[in-house]
Amino acid sequence: MLMNILTRLMTVIFAGMALPAIAANYKIDPMHTNVRFTLDHFATSSNVGGFYNLNGIVHYDAKTKTGSVDISIPLTALNTGRSTFDAHLQGNEFFNIAQYPIIRFASNDWVFDKHGKVRALRGQLTIVGKTHPVALKANKFNCYYSPIASAQVCGGDFEGIIDRSQWGIIAYLKEMPASRYVKLNIQVEAIRQ
Q1: Which one is predicted more confidently, 176 or 45?
Q2: What are the distances in angstroms from CA 111 to CA 30, 64, 76, 138, 156?
Q3: Taking Cα atoms as reference points, which of 152, 154, 193 lies closest to residue 15?
Q4: In angstroms, rounded to a whole number, what is the distance separating the alpha carbons of residues 155 and 144?
Q5: To the nearest 10°, the Cα dihedral for 189, 82, 182, 157?
Q6: In sequence order, what DSSP letters do the residues of 114-147 get, joined into one string?
Q7: What is the pLDDT of residue 24?
């Protein structure tokens, strides 16, 4: 009997995995979504950290090869593993979270290859009240049926490099050779609503 239950469960899971993505809205799953950053620290080592507890909406239509995303990143969720460094980055020299508590990324310009796979997102990134274009490369993108969520899930891994000085975050750029370039690694999963 247990084997029959397991066989049926696996059939449902694999059948769901074979389903094409349906045009729909997908809600960001904060448990499987984060933005991590790396930047050079005076040509000596790298500073790393991440943003967690993200929320937002993704719209994806594989048939028409269109998509959009609107993600909010709460700066209170910044985590470098060191609370004093978190507070330093959250302060006026960098993110100034008292005045600008949210980073926002919005895109409705998705790039697909000839096989219909998502290859890049081009959008607008708002930090400290300033908005500039950003391009993110899709290292992978997929949809699957999640038996845990009882719904289709779409998501992927993305990366990009931004110049922090575009947003006016210029601390230590003149006094010391700190890097202006920040590498972003983003993991996103969203659940169909």
Answers
A1: 45
A2: 24, 12, 32, 9, 14
A3: 152
A4: 9
A5: -20
A6: TTS-EEEEEEEEEETTEEEEEEEEEEEEEEEEET
A7: 93
Q: Is residue 9 one of the residues assigned to a domain?
A: no
Where in the sequence is the domain holding 161, given as residue range(s)? 21-192
Q: How many H helices and E strands in the chain?
A: 2, 11
Give the long-range contacts of residues 139-146, CB within 8 A, separation 24 or more.
Answer: 141/117, 143/19, 143/20, 143/21, 143/60, 143/62, 144/16, 144/17, 145/12, 145/13, 145/15, 145/16, 145/17, 145/19, 146/16, 146/191
Query: Domain for residue 146, yes or no?
Result: yes
Q: Is residue 81 part of a domain?
A: yes
Question: Residues 64-93: what's their mean pLDDT?
Answer: 96
Q: Taking the CA atoms of 7, 9, 15 and 18 in sequence, report the sign of the dihedral they define.
A: negative
pLDDT value of position 42? 83
- Report how far Cα 64 is from the mean position of its chain's Cα atoms: 23
Q: What is the pTM of this model?
A: 0.86
Domain count, the chain: 1
What is the average pLDDT score of the chain?
90
Chain segment 40-54, per-residue pLDDT in tens? 888 889 999 999 999
Domain membership of residue 153 (yes or no) is yes
123-173: per-residue pLDDT in tens? Answer: 999 999 999 999 999 999 999 999 999 999 999 999 999 999 999 999 988
CATH of the domain at 46: 2.40.128.110
